[in-house]
Amino acid sequence: MADRGANPLSLPDDWPDHPDPILALNRMGSFDWDLDAGVMQMDAQAHEIFDLRPDEYDDRPESLGSRVPSSEALRLDTVVSQALKAGSENYGAYFRLRRRDGSLRWTHTQGYIRRDESGRPRRIIGIVRDATQELSDSEARREQAAQEDDRRRQTNVVQLTTAALAHARTVQDVIDVLKDTHGLTHLGATSLVMGLVEAGRIRLIAEGPEGSLIPGTEVTGIEEPYPMSEAVRTLSPRFIDSPEEFAERYPRLWQGLTGLDITSAAYLPLIVQAHPIGAMGLLYSDRRGFSAEERNILVALGSSISQSLQRAMFYEQEMDLAQGLQQAMLPRTIPSVPGADLAVRYRAATIGGSLGRDIGGDWYDLIPLPGDRVGAVIGDVQGHDTHAAAVMGQLRIVLRAYAAEGHPPATVMARASVFLDELDTDRSATCLYAEADLSTGVLQVVRAGHLDPLVRRTDGSCRRVPVPGGLPLGLSAEFGRLDYPVGTMELDPGDTLLLCTDGLVEQPGADLDDGMESLSALIAAGPDDVRALADRLIDLAGERGGGDDVALLLLRRRALDSARPGGRLRQRVTPGEPEALAEARRLIRTAVGSWGAEDRADEIELVADEMITNVLMHTEGSAVVTLRVLDGTERRVRVEVEDSSSALPRRREAGESGVSGRGLLLIETLTDVWGVEARGSGKCVWSEFVMAKDPTPA
Question: CA-to-CA distance for 687 and 664, rounded, in angstroms?
Fold first, then answer.
């Protein structure tokens, strides 16, 4: 990495009272140690302290061996290792280094340990300074002994505050911990004030106890003559030992404090990675002055609070990003689908009670399809972070695209699994895709490691519908091409299909089957209106809490407008998908049976199969098969198969051993009437079958 030179703090050039001279005057250099990469970057001042030219250091700690004697390096490594293992926020140590001329000089280092959410140390950011004038060999030994005692006392105070802040996830959580009675007791203060740096100003975010806010100080400039502004501007604390000193140094502020009986104060900069993010003021009414030990304790407290505050700010930023990403990925609106009442709900997980809301990869989608059909999707990507939300959005898009292209449900799911595997992510996802023909009530359902659907019947009963399933999406690399069997079911008018993620079902210590039974009972006892039912279920999930988000989709089938002709079914059969033809046959038989034409189901299925096969064999495109009921003097089932070829079917002689050439003969024999129509760039072969009298209506 390039030398940071004279700008180690990376602050804007117009920042008032530039802090670089302060570090230089105190002979301080800074370093940033990436523990994972084993790289420790140092600024120019640190190079000078180690008496190294930039070209003599390659950002590797081992390269300092020429300057740090082995005994000193061993002692320093021990201090750092103990701090890392003990979960400490920081460490400090004196050590000797050998300069270019061979002389030994004392140096002091202070490091601040950055950990990830699991507590694993990832980085150490700190300073080094020349301590030769401060210590002699004998003084160093005495100072180290004294500092050990101070460190123990300081650690107790810091640990109390750190423990209180351990579960603070948001900025408001940090403020609440510090402002309550126990927080102020830990700090030993009577009153507290805290501000954050925003656009060159300090905005007050906390003051306590109530009534201690001084009018006009809610937002102040960094250049103004206030102790908090000076702490931010100079990156150093401001200690006020007496009321007289307070009144003399800060008369404007003191005028608002005369009624609070303040006898001393400490204003601490809140610094993260050598960058000021704010300041905190502690006001006392029972003490005058601060010893060196007390000042060190307060500086350590400021460091601990800075880390908690930065962690909370990062958490809020990540949550804002993740929530915005997930909201962008979820459908903005749900389309109106003739023949169905729809309701969808999403609820983010609550982690740690009231401390915040987490984000996850749960999603829902509704996909309008041709021919009174609609696709319903529910899914859950592994994980609760921004990456899970991003993967969720991509999966939702590809599932919608595959379904809109006309692929059968099994193919939609299989292709989505391959897509997720090829994303080169470590995430898998569970998913359920249901394609509903609202004119017939026929549902094709495929399930990839997800929960079974539930159906509430018109009599109010609710049951779980077992559906054969395959492995979660994204495992194709491990198991090869995954097969997803299709389950077929029917929704009568008035029936409601419910799809949900496991956050609505799973409860700590409870079996999944028991959770499904409890959910079925709640649905059965719930309101008939799907929106009201969705609200009831999502509210109950919120009352119960839990560490997982919830996605919910309800679809209630209602009868189509009476003015529309009877049932209608439309399906695309694509070449190269062997399962597509079998699914089409099954759907045709189910639909014909639901329309009351069971006596001709075999004939209709056979003719449709022949017409579809002809398209797949003799053209280069897909076959689109449409079945519908025609009302008139006699009810008929009409089968239409469209393709993109303009070539008309022709009769061929099959011969004694021929396996083809009998298609038109078969169609002529089994149908009541058939024909061919030109359709744009292709054609449509159709056939009609007269239904039995007085069929039972669907």
Answer: 11
What does the pLDDT look like over 462-494, one tens digit per residue?
A: 999 999 888 999 886 566 667 888 888 888 889
* Phi-psi sector, 480: left (phi>0), alpha (psi -120 to 50), beta: left
Quick: pLDDT tens for 115-148: 998 889 999 998 998 888 777 655 656 666 666 7
Instruction: Please report the pLDDT score of residue 524 as a whole number.
Output: 92
Q: What is the pLDDT of residue 496?
A: 94
Any idea which residue has 């307070």 for tokens?
A: 246
Q: Which residues contact 607 (CB under 8 A, 6 or more apart)?
A: 639, 666, 667, 670, 671, 687
Give which of 261, 251, 305, 258 is closest to 281, Cα–Cα. Answer: 305
- The single-letter code of the amino acid at 360 is G
The DSSP bridge pattern shows strands 487-490 and 469-470 to be unpaired
| Backbone dihedral angles phi then psi of residue 248, each to the nearest 5 degrees | -75, -45
Q: Of 12, 214, 8, which Cα lies nearest the Cα of 125? A: 8
Distances (CA, A) of 126 to 77, 147, 174, 268: 15, 19, 24, 18
pLDDT at 280: 87
Alpha helices in 494-633 (DSSP H): 512-525, 530-544, 578-594, 601-618
Phi-psi region of 160 (alpha: psi -120 to 50; beta: other; left: phi over 0): alpha
Which residues does 603 contact at the CB level (< 8 Å), separation at least 6? Answer: 670, 671, 689
CA distance 595 to 599: 11
Provide CB contacts within 8 A for 24, sequence distance 6+.
45
> Which amino acid type is present at position 232?
V
Q: Are 402 and 567 in contact (CB under 8 A)?
A: no
Of 476, 529, 158, 504, nearest to 343 by C-alpha is 529
How many alpha carbons lie under 13 Å from residue 549 in its C-beta half-sphere? 26
Record the pTM: 0.50
Instruction: Quote the tokens at residue 161.
Output: 């505050």
* Phi and psi angles of residue 311, each rounded to the nearest 5 degrees, phi first: -60, -40
Q: Which residues of the chain have pLDDT under 50?
A: 1-19, 181, 352-357, 562-565, 657-659, 695-698
Q: Which residue has the tokens 């299709």?
A: 486
Angle value at C-alpha 222, between 219 and 227, nearest 5 degrees: 90
CA 696 to chain CA mean position, Å:
51
The gap from C-alpha 536 to its chain's centroid, in whole angstroms, comes to 25
Q: Which helix (H) or strand (E) holds 357?
A: none
Evaluated on CA atoms 538, 539, 541, 542, the torsion sign reads: positive
- Specify the 3-state DSSP secondary structure of 16: coil
Nearest CA-CA partner of 69 in 32, 95, 87, 43: 95
Residue 81 tokens, joined: 């290792």
Cis ω for the linkage preceding 209 (within 30 of 0): yes
- Residue 477 burial class via C-beta count within 10 angstroms: exposed 0-12, middle 13-18, buried 19 and up: exposed
Q: Report d(CA 615, CA 623) in Å as an integer.
A: 6
Q: What is the dihedral of CA 139, 145, 146, 148, to 10 degrees?
A: 140
The DSSP element (H or E) to which 363 belongs, if any, is strand 361-369
In 392-461, beta strands by DSSP E: 429-437, 442-448, 454-456
Q: Find where tokens 């990507």 sit.
A: 381
pLDDT value for 565: 44
Per-residue pLDDT at 4: 35
